[in-house]
Amino acid sequence: MIRKWLSFALFACSCQAFALQDTPPLEASSSHYIRDDLFIFMHTGPSRNYRILGSVEAGTPVTVLGSDSDTEYTQIKDNQDRTGWVESKFVTTTMSQSEQLPMISEQLADSQANLQQVQQENARLRQQLNDARQKVTQLTTQTEQQASEVSRLTAQVERADKDELVTWFTRGGMVAGAGILLGVFLTYLPKKRNRSKEWM
Question: Where in the cell is it found (predicted)?
């Protein structure tokens, strides 16, 4: 049983040492946070051997004042204006979830509002498209009707022209025939005698 506990403790220490090796150095700035998955103790110096000033809750924004590369501790100033040292691996530049949530909620609300506006605009454009299609269909029907009417009137005008031409030919023929008959008739009329010839 003791061996199991010792093995577990050794494994935990090795994991912690591995995590400490992968921790990148932190630059001094106010845009740092305590990781969300834990709470840590703040010490008066860069080691666990120093007195504990108190705990820092997960997600707390802190200001990095400096770091000690030998002990992998970072000096911070928390939101309660306390200055102390914490393990560097527990300090991150990622904003805490508690602070991200209102921003994400606001972004989500803005996105939903924008989506609703886009959907309304899309519906309006679809209605305009349907109206335009109906107008095009109506105009196409009117154009076809007008084309049909133009064809009918054109055919009617052509028939009227043909009828008028036939009428003129008929009348011309009748006038010519009447002229011929009149000429023939005048040819056979008796001529009047000259009175001067009668007295002789």
Answer: Membrane
